[in-house]
Structure to design on (142 residues):
């Protein structure tokens, strides 16, 4: 019997750890923390004209958060705040309403469809996105 939550595609994303690490001189850093389980994601961004040009993450979290951070590490370049907010809404809809996964370049989030039935795990998937939003909002707020 295969596990709908921890299948090989999701585990591969986590193992790839794309973007893992920290940037030496980020333009912005963000943090997201889940007190229920202790998961913590720190994201560093380098920005140009409000768009991400480089991203790195330090993810001390479960496999779901690690896989989500890995997707962002490989696909966030050129995204702006509105794009990341839209991505979060799309992922949330996928998990809560069985909606389609986000379109390219974030279609790898389809690997989390098995997490939909585990409401407590939705936060894990969204944690890295929330860390990115925290960083971007720090530099975009007046």
């Amino acid at each position: 019997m295969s596990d709908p939550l921890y299948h090989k595609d999701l585990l591969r994303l986590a193992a790839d750890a794309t973007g893992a690490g920290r940037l030496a001189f980020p333009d912005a850093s963000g943090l997201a923390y889940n007190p229920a389980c202790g998961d913590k994601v720190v994201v560093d961004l380098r920005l140009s004209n409000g768009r991400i040009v480089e991203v790195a993450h330090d993810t001390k979290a479960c496999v779901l958060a690690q896989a989500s951070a890995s997707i962002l590490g490989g696909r966030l370049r050129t995204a702006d705040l509105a794009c990341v907010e839209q991505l979060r809404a799309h992922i949330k809809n996928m998990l809560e309403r069985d909606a389609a996964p986000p379109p390219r370049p974030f279609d790898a989030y389809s690997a989390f469809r098995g997490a939909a039935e585990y409401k407590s795990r939705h936060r894990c998937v969204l944690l890295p996105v929330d860390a990115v939003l925290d960083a971007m909002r720090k530099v975009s707020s007046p």
Q: What stands out?
A: The chain has one domain: 8-140. The beta strands are 28-34, 39-48, 51-60.
